[in-house]
Design brief:
52% of the residues lie in helices and 15% in strands. The protein is an alpha+beta fold. Bound molecules: acetoacetyl-coenzyme A (CAA).
């Protein structure tokens, strides 16, 4: 494996890092406090091309590679995990569906809008009774001439209420299981579609998480993505890439917590010396740094495979599992190292810990990642 980053990748990372540190980081605590979707920052990210990084230039994007895009999620998440997931969902499962599976007309219509941030993308698979068991969705789509009529509800939809287009999964052929699911692009102003309750979450404040409702929503046939019955396969293939993005988000959060803990233990003195000089603290910092480094390798390796077009289902799940567990462990240890100061909002580490938790849950819980990894084991790997 060779992770020598190209000049272009490094330049892109520096650009995003500077923006994240100068524009996002100073606002992160306020976004957490108010829980308001940071539309002004999202707009700036759109103006700078960050919402279309891996989208080809012909569709209004920057044309960056997948590794560069993952580094962007990592850098943004270092400053604000909420903006990290807004970017990741908008791109990996909001824009890529159209790039990978859309008709030329769908690409022309949606990608320039998404890449510029004029509209935000979202992904609607999960339902109240279909989370890990995604095949069990019940939202129904019935063909009626040039339209499909959608009925049902979705829950926990990231970018809900903010998105201009939703990539929605619905059953067109009940009884066929995974092969009876179809994907639709649902415009936010579709008749019969409405955004429901906005959730109040433990962390990731500022990122909108909403219910969606479809009451005889009329979606034109031209907004079907792929063929009838291809929906579940489309969802899984998108999540293979999406999970690397969540892994990159976990890596960014973990790095932020490690840096904060390191800086704090270098300046905080007890018993006449810096905390960082106590061996017990050094052991904690060393373990945190080693996990972050291991997570980085898994994330970049999966990203590299994805970029090469190789099958990365197993590696994406490994990266997601390890990097997000690392985020949880490192942020928890960071709070511990800050002591009482770690538990109050004057310092960012309690936010990192609250934000890290969801990364172990969404885009497939880490239990599901283990299921996927185990199913992809082979002899003599
Ligand atoms: N790529 C392509 N096709 C795939 C695939 C993959 N990675 N994984 C499965 N498939 C195909 C299978 O080949 C199979 O196809 P056929 O019917 O043609 O044979 C079909 O999909 C069904 O596969 P399984 O039998 O493996 O299905 P399953 O019911 O056992 O479920 C699962 C598999 C991995 C558990 C899946 O349900 C899953 O990933 N669950 C988690 C759901 C999830 O990740 N939700 C995320 C929501 S989005 C989100 O969280 C965004 C956010 O806000 C941050």
């Amino acid at each position: 494996m060779d992770f020598n980053l190209s000049i272009e990748q490094l330049e892109m990372r520096n650009l995003v890092r500077n923006f994240a540190r100068e524009v996002i980081a100073p606002r992160a605590a306020e976004i957490d406090e108010t829980d308001e979707f940071p539309r002004d920052i999202v707009r700036q990210m759109g103006d700078l091309g960050m919402l279309g990084l891996p989208i080809p230039e012909q569709y209004g994007g920057v044309g960056a590679d997948f590794v560069a895009y993952m580094m962007a999620i990592e850098e943004i998440s270092y400053a604000s995990a909420a903006l990290g997931v807004i970017l990741a969902v908008h791109t990996s499962v909001g824009s890529f569906p159209i790039l990978y599976f859309g008709t030329e007309a769908q690409k022309q219509r949606y990608l320039p809008e998404l890449a510029s941030g004029r509209i935000i993308g979202a992904f609607a698979l999960t339902e109240a009774d279909a989370g890990s068991d995604a095949v069990a969705i019940r939202t129904r789509a019935v063909r009626d001439g040039d339209f499909y009529i959608l009925n049902g509800s979705k829950v926990f939809i990231t970018n809900g209420g903010e998105a201009g287009v939703y990539c929605v999964f619905a059953v067109t052929n009940p009884g066929r299981g995974a092969r009876g699911i179809t994907t639709f692009l649902v415009d936010a102003d579709t008749q019969g579609f409405r955004v429901g309750k906005k959730e109040k979450k433990m962390g990731l404040h500022g990122s909108a998480t909403c219910e969606l409702h479809f009451d005889d929503a009329r979606v034109p046939v031209k907004n079907r993505l792929g063929e009838e019955g291809q929906g579940f396969s489309i969802a899984m293939r998108l999540l293979d890439g999406g999970r690397v993005g969540i892994a990159a988000q976990g890596l960014g959060i973990a790095r932020a917590a490690l840096d904060a803990a390191y800086a704090y233990t270098r300046q905080r003195k007890q018993f006449g010396q810096e905390l960082a000089q106590f061996q017990g603290v050094q052991f904690m910092l060393a373990d945190m740094a080693t996990k972050v480094e291991a997570a980085r390798w898994l994330v970049y390796h999966a990203a590299q495979l994805r970029q090469e077009g190789a099958d990365c289902t197993r590696e994406a799940s490994m990266a997601k599992l390890f990097a997000t567990d690392t985020a949880m462990q490192v942020t928890t240890d960071a709070v511990q190292l800050f002591g009482g100061y770690g538990y109050i909002k004057d310092y960012p580490v309690e936010r990192y810990m609250r934000d890290a938790k969801i990364t172990q849950i969404y885009e497939g819980s880490n239990q599901i990642q283990r299921v996927v990894i185990a199913r992809h084991l082979q002899p003599n790997q």
